[in-house]
Design brief:
This protein has about 300 residues and is of the alpha/beta class. It is about 45% helix and about 20% strand. The protein contains eleven helices and ten strands. Strands 1, 2, 3, 4, 5, 6, 7, 8, 9 and 10 form a ten-stranded mixed β-sheet that branches. Helix 10 packs antiparallel against helix 11. It is globular.
């Protein structure tokens, strides 16, 4: 076992055999003047994820910093995330999920320096490359300048990728781990403890692919998951206007309805409309009206 590391890198994974090696190697290439550990929590993968990780542990010169656990039963994404965070021993925690990866060998060094020099900040995040695997396209995750990021801004639109983040591991944080259902919930919780800095330097790649948490989950199920996350965030930060969470909920079910409409899954589409009208009847009516217009336009083009 290593001495207590300054930084713990938290990596959750599930069935990511094609990506996990790149994620691990991006962590192991870090050039630092302090001790750090890599905590990998495998949520009972049914593919060859474990084999890939074990091969790296057997052969890499920095294998001693890897703390790998494969759970015997699937915990689910949120519980696996909580378990991995709880296993992190460092003063700072950096995140990199098993299908993302780091591109800058100085990422950890620079983020630690920032947090050490700026005690009022609880978290720092960088820019990333958005890699849409199925479309074979890449673009900058953000084109916004370096700045402090507020909780409303984070809830209105994703401002940075999970793999770009480092934050302080505090006793208050550890006492509230069961509240952390996912990354956005974590950002909101941390925003109650201090300031959040965004740097526009690209240090990582965020992958969006068909087997990922978003695209790999039935859209209505994902929308319902986000509804639970929003409820938890409202509990964590009751000062945030309820309207913000209503807009987030509506947006998730709206997006799901449009996916189902394109796929001609009308059962799923109608279920999504049921939830949108529960959230906002007027906006739901407008949504249906727009969808009817699109359908009529498609029919006319075929005629």
């Amino acid at each position: 076992m290593l001495n207590t590391p300054l930084v713990s890198v938290c990596m959750i994974t599930y069935n990511q055999e094609q990506f996990i090696a790149e994620a691990i190697n991006g962590v192991l290439m870090q050039e630092v003047d302090f001790d750090f550990e890599l905590v990998i929590s495998d949520d009972a993968s049914s593919d060859a994820t474990e084999s890939v990780v074990r091969k790296i542990i057997a052969n890499h010169p920095k294998r001693h910093i890897i703390n790998y656990t494969r759970h015997q039963k699937n915990l689910g994404m949120s519980v696996n995330f909580q378990w991995a965070l709880n296993a992190c021993r460092g003063k700072f925690i950096s995140l990199c999920e098993g299908d993302d990866y780091w591109t800058d060998p100085l990422k950890l060094q620079e983020q630690v320096k920032f947090l050490d020099n700026n005690q009022e900040y609880v978290m720092v995040a960088d820019n990333s490359i958005w890699d849409h695997v199925s479309l074979n396209k890449q673009w900058n995750f953000s084109n916004k300048p370096e700045r402090d990021v507020g909780f409303i801004e984070m809830l209105e639109e994703r401002q940075f990728a999970t793999a770009s983040v480092m934050f302080r591991n505090s006793e208050v944080f550890r006492q509230n781990l069961t509240k952390i259902l996912g990354d956005t919930v974590l950002w909101v919780f941390l925003s109650t403890l201090g300031k959040i800095k965004y740097r526009n330097k690209v240090t990582s790649v965020y992958r969006r692919h068909e087997s990922g948490a978003v695209l790999g989950t039935a859209r209505i199920k994902w929308a319902k998951t986000m509804e639970i996350w929003n409820l938890r965030m409202k509990e964590i930060a009751p000062h945030i206007p309820s309207e913000v969470f209503k807009r987030r909920n509506f947006s998730e079910f709206k997006g799901a309805s449009e996916v189902y409409l394109r796929e001609k899954n009308y059962g799923g589409y109608l279920k999504c409309l049921y939830y949108t009208q529960k959230i906002n009847k007027i906006a739901s009516f407008t949504l249906v009206k727009n969808h009817i217009g699109l359908i009529i336009d498609r029919i006319r083009r075929k005629v």
